[in-house]
Task: structure prediction
Amino acid sequence: MLIGRRDMLRGALALAPMVVAGQAFAAPQAASRLLVVFLRGAYDAANIVAPTGSDFYHASRPTIALGKPDASNPNAPLALDADWSLHPALRSSIYPLWQKRQIAFVPFVGTDDMSRSHFETQDTIELGQPIAGHRNYGSGFMARLASVLGRDTPIAFTDQLPLCFRGGPMIPNMALATAGNKPAIDPHDAALIRAMYKGDHIGATDLGRAVDEGFQVREIVFKSIDEEMKEAGRGAASTKGFELSARRIGRLMRDQFNLAFVDVGGWDTHVNQGGAQGYLATRIGELGRGLAGYVDEIGPDAWANTTVVVISEFGRTFHENGDKGTDHGHGSIYWVMGGGVRGGRIVGPQVALSQATLNQGRDLPVLTDYRALIGGIAARQFGLRDERLATVFPEIRAADLGLI
Result:
């Protein structure tokens, strides 16, 4: 079979992010690490970090609301403060991080995108551009962050390069679900491709070197993932397989990468989402165990300089629907966790929940722009000044919520 020269180059460069950095697979130049976890499908934040101190919450969700905190009841939520409680499925995974003050929750956060469309709002989040302006689909916010950081080593743990990493330096992407499979290009074809591009350049880019580094990164990542895949016999980067996947991410970020993105699906709970138990409880329990595994695998030294931000495109309706689920909403609740995070707190502007304070009478309002939140974290994590942050998130001022 004949392979086009351009197609072969694209495949070889798909895992060659180090051309700009100039160093192939060294550990990150900076000690700081940032992982963004995207919960695609809009998770029902209000039943995970739930406002159990509000009678309005219980009245709005007669069949799916969590109960009141009760230390003697393992199915009761865990009190975070007088107003908020954590889902009991996170008792053994995330709650210990709360007790160690290594996780904070930011309620009433999101975007000003009111489309309530999964795809459009996911694009809005990943692009990180002003919503009123023209969308440049070739410029995602994490790609711009990677460009600003310059010598850092990014990776996307996804099947396709996500929108947030498009543009900027070349970024590797590796779907954890494909671990254990043979690489798409066999050694014979790889040798032909290396020979074909040896000595070629595009501008200042040495194509031979880029191709060679791309293959080497591919081999390193496949080997690291494949070893554990064979032991576990499972590999989907879904909630069910996320614990193992997250451990692999922790290992790779500990040793090789320091700016990463992973997405986890299964959060569109229109029907029978459940309360303390049920569909959503199962999903969030798996996610929590995955994140706890990531913390364990990355180790205390790297964890001290790592920040994980858990986001979703929007929240869900505050009132449950007729099918004992929730529909597309607006404001959400983000998680910020890390060894250097000033956690054990509910952070950011809040409002007492009532029918009058809901967005359009149905959703959590947005009081903190997600770009301001992530921009503020990036500023503290990587020491970025305002003019550099303006490149990552144009036309928005970073919010320093004292998280780091």
